[in-house]
Amino acid sequence: AGLAAGYSFLRAAEARVRLMTDRAMTELPADAAGWGRLARGLGFADTAGFVAELARVTGDNRRRYEGVVRS
Question: With CB atoms counted within 10 Å of each terminal CB, which end of the chain scores lower, N or C?
Fold first, then answer.
């Protein structure tokens, strides 16, 4: 997955957080129940699957960004 796919994933997560809180907010949930709702809302079977994908996407995007900045 490239930057566009990573961006789409992160925007979907942001939109779901906004729907859950009914306000413009970009912070991730503070409690386990909120993480569970977010994961299920994005189509993940469990929180662990979402957290793993979030870590993968943010790591990939960070490496790509650093590659651009350092070149």
Answer: C
Give the separation between CA 11 and CA 64, rounded to whole angstroms: 18
DSSP per-residue codes, 11-66 = HHHHHHHHHHHTS---PPPSSHHHHHHHHHHTT-SSHHHHHHHHHHHHHHHHHHHH
What is d(CA 71, CA 46) in angstroms, rounded to the nearest whole number? Answer: 38
pLDDT (tens digit per residue) in 9-39: 888 888 888 888 777 666 788 899 999 999 9
